[in-house]
Design goal:
By secondary structure, the protein is of the alpha+beta class. The protein is built from 2 helices and 5 strands, in the order E-E-H-E-H-E-E.
Length: about 80
Amino acid sequence: GFISLLDKYIGGLFISPIHQRKGIGTLLIDKVKSEKGSLAVGVYEKNLPARKFYEKLGFKYVNKELQDETNEYVLNMVLNR
């Protein structure tokens, strides 16, 4: 798996499907949280597994916006230290 950061914004978090639900994503978030402090992420509203993952880690909903490129709603979330 890997995580992509743009300062404190999570641009992507990807874990191979055969290794999901083993704590790897949580470890990656914990690592960058210890380095960056607060974090932000945008999650597609319809991506329920990703939303639940970030909520479980303490990310809070900030707002919702329509992404022009995909015509999908993105939920912006933050995690404060």
